[in-house]
Amino acid sequence: MKLQYNSPVILTFTLISTAVLAIDYVTAHFLITNFFTVSSSMSLWNPISYFRLFSHVFGHADWGHLLSNFSFILLIGPLLEEKYGSKIMMEMILITALLTGIITLLFMNMTLLGASGIVFMLILLSSFANFKSGRIPITFLLIVVLYIGKEVANSFGQDSISQFAHIFGGICGGIFGFIINNKTEKKPIAQESSLF
């Protein structure tokens, strides 16, 4: 038996995030603060700000934060990457990162880092595993109520968690699920296919 790099996007995402956090500890938290967060105080005149709109999903506050996100990502992600293909998986992660980054930059008075938006995108997307055109999966509705409902309720509390990123990541997952699965009713997904 030999090891297989069975889910290249999810495994690479995991390895990069782990390396970023390890290097961040060596640099006394300089790396994540300056390159892997999004905040409303970022300047659009700084080219690094555009990188940070995507890179914030690789930055994590500590090992507990990273482990809580990637325990879900490593559980759900490889199955979805096998179903939809690596290219589509990468597109969904990048689009979710960009949109949560832009909304944080424009409308939120907070700092955003971590992959929890991606976690919620994958959770909602997973409820479309057996989607049929013209039908809304009950699992999708239950996940919306349980996961997104909980985040909406938690958003009224005072903590350092961005429920907004969770909610918006879930919305992205729901939209991706409808778009992709409506396309696959017409033709099967190929490994080289694209989200759009």
Task: Offer a quick outline of the entry.
By secondary structure, this protein is mainly alpha-helical.
Account of the protein in words:
- This protein is an all-alpha fold.
- The chain has a single domain, classed as Rhomboid-like (Rhomboid-like fold, Up-down Bundle), CATH 1.20.1540.10.
- Helix content is 66%, strand content 2%.
- It is built from 8 helices and 2 strands.
- It has helices at residues 8-26, 30-35, 47-55, 63-84, 86-107, 116-126, 138-154, 163-186, and strands at 38-39, 111-112.
- Strands 1-2 form a two-stranded antiparallel sheet.
- Helix 4 runs parallel beside helix 6 (116-126).
- The radius of gyration is 17 Å and the shape is globular.
Strand content: under 5%
Question: What's the number of helices?
Answer: 8
CATH 2nd-level architecture: Up-down Bundle
**Whole-number count of domains:** 1
> How is the largest sheet built, in terms of strand order?
1-2
N-to-C order of helices and strands? HHEHHHEHHH
Low-confidence stretches: none
End-to-end gap? 38 Å
Secondary-structure topology with pairs:
Layout lengths: L7 H19 L3 H6 L2 E2 L7 H9 L7 H22 L1 H22 L3 E2 L3 H11 L11 H17 L8 H24 L10
Antiparallel strand pairs: 1-2
Helix pairs in contact: 1-4, 3-5, 4-5, 4-6, 5-8, 6-7, 6-8, 7-8
List keywords for this structure.
196 residues; mainly alpha; Rhomboid-like fold; two-stranded antiparallel sheet; 2 strands
